[in-house]
Amino acid sequence: MAVTSGERVRRAAVKLFAAKGFHGTGIRDLAQEAQLSSASLYHYMGTKEDLLAGIMRDSLGRLLTGAERAVAGVTDPAERMGRLVALHVITHARRPEETKVVDDEVRVLSSGARRAVVELRDAYERLWGETIEAGLRAGAFHTPRPEVTRKALLEMCGGVARWYSARGALSLDELAGHYAVLALRALGAREPLAAPDLDVCRAVVASVWGPA
Amino acid sequence: MAVTSGERVRRAAVKLFAAKGFHGTGIRDLAQEAQLSSASLYHYMGTKEDLLAGIMRDSLGRLLTGAERAVAGVTDPAERMGRLVALHVITHARRPEETKVVDDEVRVLSSGARRAVVELRDAYERLWGETIEAGLRAGAFHTPRPEVTRKALLEMCGGVARWYSARGALSLDELAGHYAVLALRALGAREPLAAPDLDVCRAVVASVWGPA
């Protein structure tokens, strides 16, 4: 598939910001990696901070859209939660560099750009929080301090970006299914636990992020 | 308490490496932060890589020593696991910058220095793995793919470094107790779950890392 110059710049930035940090990455590095002149690079990215903010909004926006689609129309809290976990795990395992940039560089942004990013993240985490609350109300989940449990599970699931390798023996489906069970157990859901509908999650990932 | 020049250099390095990355931190930044001349700085740190490797070995070495002390003589797998979780959570919540440096900068090290760091990390994770295996053998835990569960729990627990604030409403003891329950549930331990002995964990933290 043909890759646009804008997309080449974006990919170069994710790769370099992840490897060397935002402050460690120069305009010349970006131009070289994207195979553009420094002058034409500015046409595609604005400032380096614009580029970073765009990557973060794009990444968190996709995650939010994907999560909303994955749970649309699902009322059972365990199935909703399982799908949220599966989506989070699959996308973070597939995009470790993007995860690193989004997690590490928020404080680099000026307050205006940061606000937009933080709002997207809050909306995404709210979806998790509401699903946990619904499960508690329905008696399907049992956990004190649900907001701490939510943070713990988000860290657990996002952490796959730091160790999962597609070259290993574990498929993304197996990984996602395993994590869904761990999360539901931690939430005090009753066994036996059904695996979430991974076909739906896979289709959402393909529709929001494109093919693997 | 008086702080030695060597310790000042170490603290300056943890702070700057966490904020700006290893490659983004210059010798002059380090000297300024540690309030030493660049020339005398070399006396305390050798090369910048020596300094980083020393920080990592020290951090992982303390974690391993602390974990070994916390579970010494404990045979019940749930109590062992709860103490490992509590120790990991307390130390990572207390030292977020050190966590970031140890997690992010391993690939900066040359192969010799890296080997020593990786061996310490492997030994530490082996302690978790052996405890999980012992729980499975005793019928106290039930999880498929125990090595994946171990990684998931380590990421969950270490993740507190990215969000916990001592200024919030949650004490370190409450945090550690909550995470112990989440981890034991994820491992399929039977309810009701006893909290691990946090007095022991607190004493180990004080003996290995010093007062808070």
CATH superfamily of the largest domain in chain A, called what?
Tetracycline Repressor, domain 2
Described by strand count, sense and barrel closure, the largest sheet of chain A is: none
Report the span from N to C terminus of chain A: 13 Å
- Helix/strand/pairing category of chain A: mainly alpha
Q: Which bin fits the share of residues in helices of chain A? A: over 70%
Which stretches of chain A of 5+ consecutive residues score pLDDT under 50?
A: none
Determine the most extensive contact between two protein chains: A-B, 32 and 32 residues
Protein name (chains A, B): TetR family transcriptional regulator
Pfam families (chains A, B): TetR_C_24, TetR_N
InterPro entries (chains A, B): Homeodomain-like_sf (IPR009057), HTH-type_TetR-like_transc_reg (IPR050109), HTH_TetR (IPR001647), KstR2_TetR_C (IPR041490), Tet_transcr_reg_TetR-rel_C_sf (IPR036271)
Organism (chains A, B): Prauserella shujinwangii
Describe the structure concisely.
Chain A has helices at 5-20, 27-34, 38-45, 48-71, 77-94, 96-104, 111-137, 146-158, 172-186, 198-209. Chain A has 212 residues and is mostly helical.
Task: Please outline the helices and strands.
The structure is a homodimer of 212-residue chains.
Chain A: H1 5-20, H2 27-34, H3 38-45, H4 48-71, H5 77-94, H6 96-104, H7 111-137, H8 146-158, H9 172-186, H10 198-209
Helix pairs in contact in A: 1-2, 1-6, 4-5, 4-6, 4-7, 4-10, 5-7, 5-8, 5-9, 5-10, 7-8
Domain HTH tetR-type (chains A, B): 3-63
DNA-binding region (chains A, B): 26-45
GO molecular function (chains A, B): DNA-binding transcription factor activity; transcription cis-regulatory region binding
